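Q&A log
Question type: sequence-to-structure
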Amino acid sequence: MASHPSFSIVAPVYGVERYIANCADSLLGQTYDNIQFIFVNDGTKDASIALLEKLIDEKYSFLKDRIVIVNKHNEGLPAARRTGMEYVTGDYVLHVDSDDWVEKDMVAKIAAKAVETDSDVIYFDFYKEYSSRSKLDREKDYTADSKMKFIWGLFNYKAYGYVWNKCVKRSVYEKNDIRFPSYGMHEDIYLMAQLLYCADSIVHLPEALYHYRRDNPGSISAAKTKNRRRDSAMNMMDLYERYRNDLYNSPIRDSYGEILLRTGWLSIRYGFGFFEKYPYLAESIRKQPLSFRNKTFILWQLITKIYAMIKR
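Response status: OK
Response body:
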């Protein structure tokens, strides 16, 4: 790795006029100087872009040759991230949600770790920010040798799937058929499972560099539970359909049983109609063993398997 690697930061913008100035200031004010900033206007209807441009004009005009603002019609967060990737030029890529903020030396510390390790993926700790308190969340240590355990943890909530606390070499995106999901819920797990699987080296940087805002009522995580669970299941089944013909050589090798059982259970509970949408689902679920290791409770797994046995 070069002694001064370049970075691209992709930040989708939609409905964040209360937060965009704080987010952009934390990005544009980085102590590291070899950064490209890509803000993707996902058809926001508020003043977010105007406030961003005002901040740039008044405080960061000297960075204009390294700032890209992309305007597009609204398609949601995954599509905005995908659009941002079309403009990336850096050695490494960071994704940031525009209602959050980062430490001013975040990129400098990641760059030092990149020079030291030349790792494909560098992931780091973070703070969850609530209205009256902050909570430090520390990641577990994983390497490329334990990446399947890392990926299994994403699907079973034993590891963090967030895309914004993982810095990835641009070459990992370019050399592999990395796909972005269609739906917003658990889009980060969908993406990170692929990236981790394709990474030849993974390193944990044990410092909290990111502030994840948990009190934004307009965020995806605040959406109605039923809609969130439907969108999550749709993303997971899309991932399963991509790899179902060669599951052993795929990022979901150890996780597809949980994907199938959880999708089946959610279909039963909420009437999503997934058994009709995916005609093979019942038969595939019948073949899956019950497991106390899965995130889906064992009783739910049992109900789902009984339903699948009946639905022939």
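Response note: The chain is about 40% helix and 20% strand.
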